[in-house]
Amino acid sequence: MHHLTLKGVLKKSNREMNIINVYTPSTVAGRAELWSKLKEITHNGAGSWIFIGDFNSVREENERMGSAFNPVDTDNLNGFLSDCSLYEAPLVGRTFTWSSADASKHSRIDRCFMTEQTHMEVGDLRLLVLDRIIADHCPIMLQVNTRWFGARPFRFYNIWLYDRSFT
To answer: pLDDT, tens digit, for every residue of 116-143?
Structure first.
């Protein structure tokens, strides 16, 4: 098994949410088989979908440095994303999420994808890439992208001066 599914219900909308943690096989054929299974699961399931984890594939050639690029593998991944109408959460913090022990090879293979319905119900999501500590992968953290415009300004209305309970 190369994925783990977490199902729940969003309190705000009372709709089903599915989060699939993906750890794909190391072969192109194995990944193609997984994309087919995941496509079947999403087409037969209900609710919103988030896919997050180690996809072991890149979407474009510039997402790999120092190692071989496989266009068939990229086409398979992009085809799966298109078939399931998934789009990618923006990556924040680093360009690459994996590197070899000697740092001669780098790839962006850890990702997060979601349906438009997820975006509408949860809001803007982004994928934070944290500092690598032990493993060859950087830890990733999914975060709701909230906007902070600073503290609310204090407002004073002159009419308050005429209210005896205010003074």
So the answer is: 888 888 888 899 998 888 888 999 999 8
What's the chain's average pLDDT? 88
Beta-carbon contacts of residue 58 (< 8 Å; ≥ 6 apart): 64, 69, 73, 74, 77, 107, 108, 109
Burial of residue 132 (number of CB atoms within 10 Å: 0-12, 13-18, 19+)? middle
* Residue 148 pLDDT: 58
Structure-model confidence comparison of residues 33 and 155, the more confident one: 33
Residue 116's Cβ-count burial label (10 Å; 0-12, 13-18, 19+) is exposed
3 state DSSP class of 114 = strand
Handedness of CA 99, 105, 106, 107 (dihedral sign): negative
pTM to 2 decimal places: 0.82
Q: Which of 27, 46, 20 is nearest to 112 (CA)?
A: 20
Question: Is 80 exceeded by the pLDDT of residue 164?
Answer: no
Helix (H) or strand (E) holding 8: strand 3-9
Beta-strand relationship, 106-107 and 98-99: antiparallel
Q: Helix, strand or coil for residue 75?
A: helix
Q: How far apart are CA 159 and CA 126, in angstroms?
A: 44
From 86, 78, 36, select the one nearest 57 (Cα to Cα). Answer: 78
